Sequence to fold (377 residues):
Amino acid sequence: MKSLKEIIDSYDPSAPLPQASTIPASWYIDERVYELELQNVFARSWQLVARVDQLLQPGSYVTTEIGGEPIVVVRGADKVLRGFFNVCRHHAAAVMTEPEGTANHLRCPYHGWTYSLEGELKGTPDFTGVCDFDRAANGLLSIETSVWENWVFGRTETSEQRLPPNDSPSLENFLGADLITEIRPLGLESLHWMERRHYSFDCNWKVFVDNYLDGGYHVPHLHKGLDSVLDYSNYMIENGEHFCLQWSPLVSEGAEAQTGAVRQGDRALYYWIYPNFMINWYQGAMDTNLVIPRGVDKTEVIFDFYFPDVSAAARERNQASIEVGQRIQDEDVAICKSVQRGLNSRAYNSGRLSVRREAGEHLFHRLLHADLLHTIS
Ligand code: FES
Ligand SMILES: [Fe+2]
Fold:
């Protein structure tokens, strides 16, 4: 059996796109690679944890997970946003158990330990006589949080995982000035969240990301409706440091009716931000995708749908837009499963990349390789 180091080293990140191959199949099927990704990628990168609109009031909170770790994000009484591991310091139960809500304090349901909104341990029932118990050192463990546009991001990286300072960029530095400047004029603050949908895919999380990043390569074959509104030959791919923008002019002539009705404007923008967050923007509609590994061959993708008008009057139109998105996902489910099966085959190790279409995948694979190398020696 190959060592983990050999598996990681079998990808050559230095090959330019015309010479490059994909990461090897073993990266998609080996449990050791999966575990390493949780550690080196998900536990160290900025991850979407909530929407800003969920956390406006003091005491509002959202629970979520980052790389399998329970997380709670809370707006303090002092209005400061904070993130914590949602793990009680007594016997490790989740302190907050609802997906979101408002609270005066954070009380663990198991034995009633109580923490302030700022994470300090305040109440410990029946705990007199316990020696050398430092209450101040038993607050909830914090994580970093940072806000960009409509979203709150969190990072669970601990001090032991931290490499020299430049290696742990702030969210702003990680996103980079280019991306921040490109997104700003879209005016995302005027879009309102309407609905969340969960999709499950029988594949490794990277199969979903690769599929997203193939520069529209699969669109004419798998998504006839979407294909009818995109100008395929003018579909562009632009790589940033940690993101890829794919964009396409939209056409109305010959558009399939259902898709054409809700995919209007002059262009579609598809932003992928390493490793697992996507922003899909059309005039009058946006959705985001958060790709969550649930096992080496199981992936959950959370879609959040946003619209400029979420009143009852706009409901029908918004719903029609969501249904078009749903159809595209349904079309991708089967192909992702098929790819995962093929990756397990003796007949496949890696494949070549289209220079015209697959620069985004090339960037993804190189960034991933760099992250996996970090703690492998
Ligand atoms: S585990 Fe939270 S109070 Fe005991
Ligand atoms: Fe697709």
